[in-house]
Amino acid sequence: MAKANIENCRWCLANGLAGAEPAASNRTQYLMLKLTTPNPSAMVIPVRYVETPFEFNSDEWADLGEMLTEAKRRLDQFQPDGFTIGWNVGATGGQHIFHAYMHVVCRSEKDPKAGQGIRDFLR
Ligand SMILES: [Zn+2]
After folding, report:
1. What is the per-residue DSSP string for 91-106?
2. Closest of 108, 113, 29 to residue 71, by C-alpha
3. Domains of the chain, with CATH numbers?
4. Gap between the Cα atoms of 41 and 38, Å rounded
């Protein structure tokens, strides 16, 4: 399995590779927004270099909730009919950057994949 390392990791903010400043942050998590249609989305990413959410500590889990609420607040401007939220874990699970990142994706009734959940939508 291909793995990034901490020196060239896109989501380690110290590397300056994230492509934009975080839209928000707290003690242990930060928020990136991708406000492009048809599925505007956000990502909640731990500041600490951890590959998967299975490695989160209790502070990271607590702070995740706050950033998830902030993600929804920012995405509500698109008046989504629903959301798909989750992590891809491991190359086999569709993870491309090996620093955990949770997707928060707006869903619309007009979406061709409306009604298809996380197991089908992200394919
Ligand atoms: Zn990283």
Report:
1. GGGT--SSS--EEEEE
2. 29
3. 6-40+58-109+116-121 (3.30.428)
4. 10
- How far is the centre of ligand 1, averaged over its atoms, from the C-alpha of 46 (Å)? 9
- Could you tell me the pTM of the whole model? 0.91
Q: Round to the nearest angstrom and report the end-to-end CA distance of the chain.
A: 20
Tell me the CA–centroid distance for residue 19 and ligand 1, in Å.
13
CA of 108 to the centre of ligand 1 (A): 31
The Å distance, Cα 118 to ligand 1 centre, comes to: 24
The predicted-structure confidence for 47-87, as pLDDT tens digits, reads as follows: 999 999 999 999 999 999 999 999 999 999 999 999 999 99
CA of 49 to the centre of ligand 1 (A): 5
Q: What are the tokens at 13?
A: 């903010």
